Amino acid sequence: MRKHRIGIAFFYHESHSFSPMKTEIEQFRNEGYYIGEEIYDAYSGTKTEVGGFLDVLIQEDVEIVPLLCAAAVPSGVVSTEAYSIIEEQMLQSIREAGRLDGLLLALHGAMVVEDLFDPEEHLLGKIRELIGPIVPIATTLDMHANLSEKMIDYTPLHFGFKTYPHVDMYEQGVHASIALLKQLKEGVHYYASFEKLPMMPPSINMRTAEGPMYKMIEWAKQAEEEEGIYNVSVFGGFPYSDIPMVGASVLVVSFDPQKGKETAQKMASLFWSVREEFIMDLPGVKEGLNLAMSIEDDKPVVLADISDNPLSCGSGDTTELLREMLKMNIPDTLFGGLYDPESIEACRKKGTGNKVLLSLGGKVSPEFGESVQVEATVVALSDGVFHNSGPFNQHLRVDLKGAAHIRVGNMDILLIGRPMSANDPEMFRHIGLEPQAKRILGLKAKNHFRAAFEPIVGRIIYVDAPGVASNRLTTFMYRYIPKPIWPLDDIEYEVERRRTEKWKH
Ligand SMILES: [Zn+2]
């Protein structure tokens, strides 16, 4: 019997409709752009979705066909040009691959292109045109995917992350691969039941260790134990995408469409019932700093500058928290990583051990705070390359495009050459900074950093500074989202849903 040929591909971006930083092809090339065999070097042994695909397929009697992997750090919408280049490369690699019996595709689910609201749906449509309606496709999706009904039309097999911080990307890659192989080898038939909710909860309180998303994931796992149910994904959505398909949803993959539908409806009702728990009130910068100062602990206190978290599309260069921390000049304080290639260049020109005048941050989004003028000492310089040590994207190579450790008064600051969340302590350690040794850490981060930092830090305080990733959704001028939608509008979903059900019959 001839071997099955399984294609693997990855196309990842989370796009913020209100960010001024458009995502160009360069951002994909900086983060990860691998064609064909290059994919093995980049992802073998990593705890990523593609790492999961590879580990399963290598043990099977199948032929792996590596196609294309393109990923960029979350940012503003993807330019039409960048998307077209990647889509064409993807389709070209599928054309050149010849016959494929199955396709594993790691997607994000919240990409937006200048002229496309739902590019992942568009891409799947194009792929279906090429490979036909029969060849099985399985995808992995972020918990923050704004999943649309059309995506389900192309394949029932979508596997959302069940953890936030997303430390199960690898496991979902494994699940997708196993499901696809079962379909191919055993002829298993899957059904998808999809429920979209009229809500777009902010992600600040969407962690799966506690709170409403913990409950949802526990319920999802319970449902998966029931007969006829294969997989349950709960998607919180990504509220910074100004698109008609924004928001939360539930997807149930089953062997029994009736049971699948009932489970999806039940999960949607539960999701709706916990929605208010996603809302959090956060302290402002000064209030957060005073709170941090009042805490006696031998572990560092973290002030997370969530509104400028690069993994939520922040520019990584807003200055309000930095400015206040510099004013207070607290000993044993570390701030980073601040995106500022110009200042890194100025440090490079002066060399280590020397003083330099810098205008820090505030260059991409001055509306969220102007640059801060400082005299700094250049302590260390690096190329900015390290490998993640923590559980999030473990072992993946990260290239910051340069880094500088500077000292201003009592404060250590890490400057980095492209926006990147402080999700792994190696970001600091690779240049000789030990976050564990500090009293206060000001981090450009939100939730993912907890996976690696929680074991070494004490209290974590989210501060409400100005920024594009603010959890106050009322600050954004939405144009394309469906109305009404919670939490912007006060609606009664159950009533609405029952009414819609009546119309259907
Ligand atoms: Zn996510």
TrEMBL record:
InterPro entries assigned: MlrC (IPR009197), MlrC_C (IPR010799), MlrC_N (IPR015995)
Microcystin LR degradation protein MlrC C-terminal domain location: 303-479
Ranges annotated as spanning the membrane: none
A Pfam family: DUF1485
Domain Microcystin LR degradation protein MlrC N-terminal: 5-293
Entry protein name: Microcystin degradation protein MlrC
